[in-house]
């Protein structure tokens, strides 16, 4: 048993080593890739469920690396956070998103582009100025820009965050809480934060029509959002059954593979031309 334990330990440490090595290699690759234009955005449409109108899109970061292939944000965002590369990457995302939003809201006035903001990025002392700078540089109408923050990022240092959120609201940008339902369970804080929308995490949507607990949670989130006068968006909608369930419960908007997978900017522009104003 003793030697078996040692073998296990050896196995784990080897696996950990491999993970650390991939991490270090990815970090290096990202650093180079930033200068080589290997990062770009995809856009996933969001639809209003009452009027069946296209309302906007979420910007999702992609990395096409010559060495690692297409790497997903779930893998490289955490590395960007610990290495500090998130600041440069976050600015790239903000800039690209604002540029596209400025252009697209001329084709489709109700168009808004949602951007994911990581915790470290949000906590940066000059975050407000950064957002302001990109709004000014691109001329985007501030209410065409939406910032998505997770529950846990907002709840961490809640008092200080309220000031930042208020300042962002003053600028005119929209704010939403991402992955709602997965973080802190205290709902009472919601009324203190100047937010516009909450996004029901896709883990509750996946089994919506087969798991009565998930259905109950989704319904509770929708009704709570309505009474707090917040817009509610369901993410990860994949089937027409899920869509009908949500529309029947008066969920405001939805996003997911049912409508479209995230797509390159040129493709989304065609999508806008096809669907906006219909
Ligand atoms: P998220 O903000 O929850 O984004 C939604 C994720 O769900 C996206 O994964 C999207 O492609 C995926 N998705 C959309 N519809 C469906 C569906 O119907 N079914 C399923 N199974 N999945 C769906 P993606 O693009 O891989 O992004 C993963 C996460 O990486 C995002 O989760 C977000 O937390 C983070 N991320 C992406 N882009 C950025 C960024 O620019 N900055 C930061 N800080 N984080 C980002
Ligand atoms: Ca998001
Ligand atoms: Ca989400
Ligand atoms: Ca999620």
TrEMBL record:
<feature type="domain" description="EAL">
    <location>
        <begin position="23"/>
        <end position="276"/>
    </location>
</feature>
<protein>
    <submittedName>
        <fullName>EAL domain-containing protein</fullName>
    </submittedName>
</protein>
């Amino acid at each position: 048993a003793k030697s078996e334990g040692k073998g296990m330990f050896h196995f784990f440490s080897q696996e950990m080593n491999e993970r650390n090595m991939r991490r270090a290699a990815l970090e290096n690759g990202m650093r180079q890739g930033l200068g080589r234009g290997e990062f770009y955005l995809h856009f996933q449409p969001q639809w209003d469920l009452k009027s069946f109108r296209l309302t906007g899109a979420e910007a999702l970061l992609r990395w096409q690396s010559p060495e690692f292939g297409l790497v997903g944000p779930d893998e490289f965002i955490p590395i960007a956070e610990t290495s500090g590369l998130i600041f440069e990457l976050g600015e790239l995302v903000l800039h690209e998103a604002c540029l596209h939003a400025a252009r697209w809201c001329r084709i489709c006035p109700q168009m808004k582009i949602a951007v994911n903001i990581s915790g470290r990025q949000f906590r940066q002392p000059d975050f407000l100025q950064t957002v302001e700078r990109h709004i000014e540089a691109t001329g985007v109408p501030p209410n065409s820009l939406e910032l998505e923050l997770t529950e846990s990022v907002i709840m961490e240092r809640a008092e200080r965050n309220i000031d930042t959120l208020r300042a962002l609201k003053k600028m005119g940008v929209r704010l939403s809480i991402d992955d709602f339902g997965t973080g802190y369970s205290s709902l009472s804080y919601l009324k203190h934060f100047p937010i516009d929308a909450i996004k029901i995490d896709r883990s509750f949507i996946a089994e919506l029509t087969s798991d009565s607990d998930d259905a109950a949670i989704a319904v509770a989130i929708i009704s709570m959002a309505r009474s707090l006068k917040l817009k509610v968006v369901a993410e990860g909608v994949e089937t027409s059954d899920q869509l009908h369930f949500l529309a029947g419960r008066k969920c405001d908007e939805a996003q997911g593979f049912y409508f479209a997978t995230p797509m390159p900017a040129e493709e989304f522009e065609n999508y806008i031309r096809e669907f906006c104003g219909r």
